[in-house]
Design goal:
Pfam families: PilZ. By secondary structure, the protein is α+β, with helices and mostly antiparallel strands. The chain is built from 4 helices and 12 strands; from the N terminus they run H-H-E-E-E-E-E-E-H-E-E-E-E-E-E-H. The protein has 3 domains: 46 residues; 84 residues, predicted glycosyltransferase like domains (Thrombin, subunit H, Beta Barrel), CATH 2.40.10.220; 88 residues, Thrombin, subunit H.
Length: 252
């Protein structure tokens, strides 16, 4: 009987040990499953960034014209580097750190904040990411380096033969200017345009007339630096009364 009792005790201990081992093993498996599930949930919660997104976050060097608008009007700039989050550009415009401006990329406009100003170079940070590749791909090769059209409100003087007309300039680019006038203009007429603050007359041709609006194409494109400087000065001129003086038609 003693031997039988001893044998039963050993069997119970063995069964108990096996049960505990089985429980521990099961617990370990469940813990591992919970760990894997937790890791999977964490991975699912993490932001997945594609290679393209990573590439667009890195600044790339470019040489492309763009425009931006601020409290005093629209301005030209030359973008020198850009990422989906920020850019640096050269401009003649007078801006200050912290100023809110709107960059127009043609295919989209983005609000941003001026973060640095160093001479004629500014750095801005976008409120929302920019699709850099879409901007670089927009437009054809012929126009990618052309300055965009800038909205203005300036007095201009036209000389058509011996006739002198005072008109309102509504937009300007390196290639031409849009004006408003009550006078009758004829498509195809050659003329000279004088702008207050611009040295010399600009030769051009009337290419389109629609009601009070007329489009004029310059015979020679304006220089980017000269146009940028004039636009920066025109912002100050818009804050003063515009008379009929200050136009230079002597040079062509």
């Amino acid at each position: 009987m003693a031997n039988a009792s001893s044998t039963m005790l050993r069997v119970e201990k063995a069964v108990g040990h096996a049960s505990r081992m089985a429980w521990r093993t099961c617990g370990g498996v469940m813990a591992n499953k919970r760990g894997r599930a937790s890791a999977l949930e964490t991975a699912q919660d993490a932001v997945i960034v594609s290679a393209e997104q990573l590439r667009q976050r890195r600044p790339i060097s470019v040489y492309r014209m763009a425009k931006f608008s601020g409290a005093r009007g629209e301005y030209l700039c030359l973008v020198r580097s850009i990422s989906s989050r920020s850019l640096t550009a050269q401009t003649r415009a007078s801006v200050v750190v912290g100023e809110r401006i709107m960059f127009d990329f043609g295919n989209e406009a983005k609000e941003c904040t001026v973060g640095s100003v160093d001479g004629g170079c500014i750095g801005v940070t976008f409120d929302e990411p920019v699709d850099v590749q879409a901007w670089l791909d927009s437009g054809d090769g012929q126009h990618r380096r052309a300055a965009p059209r800038i909205s203005i409100a300036a007095r201009a003087r036209l000389q058509i033969g011996n006739q002198i007309l005072f008109v309102t300039a509504r937009n300007i680019s390196q290639d031409g200017i849009g004006i408003e006038t009550d006078d009758i203009l004829v498509e195809g007429d050659a003329l000279k345009v004088a702008l207050r603050g611009w040295h010399g007359a600009i030769a051009g041709t009337i290419t389109r007339v629609e009601g009070d609006f007329a489009a004029i194409r310059f015979l020679q494109p304006l220089g980017f630096e000269a146009l940028s400087e004039w636009l920066a000065g025109a912002a100050a001129l818009r804050q003063t009364p515009l008379g009929e003086g200050g136009y230079d038609l002597a040079r062509s």
